[in-house]
Amino acid sequence: MSPTSPARRLRFGLPRRVFAQVLLMQVAIAAGVAVLATGLFLAPLSDQLDDQAMRRALAIAQTTAAQPRIAEELRSSRPVTDGPVQADAERIRRASGAEYVVIMNKKGVRWSHTDRGQIGRVVSTDPSDALAGREVMEIDDGTLGRSARGKVPLRGADGAIVGAVSVGIEYDSVRARLIHAIPGLFAYAGGALAVGALAAYLISRRVQRQTRDLAFSDISALLAEREAMLHGIREGVVALDRTGRIRLLNDEAQRLLGLDSAAIGRPLDDALGAGRTTDVLAGHVTGTDLLTVRGRRVLVANRMPTDDGGAVATLRDRTELEELGRELDSTRGLIDALRAQDHEHANRMHTLLGLLELEMYEEAAEFVGEVAGAHRVTAEQITEKIQDPLLAALLVGKATVAAERGVALGVSRDTELPDRLVDPRGLVTIVGNLVDNALDAAAGSSRHARVEVALRADGPTAVLRVRDTGPGVPAEQRESVFEEGWSTKEPPEYGKRGIGLALVRRLAERQGGTAEVTASPAGGAEFVVVLPEAFAVPNETMPRGPVPSESVPSAADEEVR
Question: CATH assignment of 321-560, given 3.30.565.10, 3.50.50.60, 1.10.10.10, 3.30.750.24?
Answer without folding.
Answer: 3.30.565.10
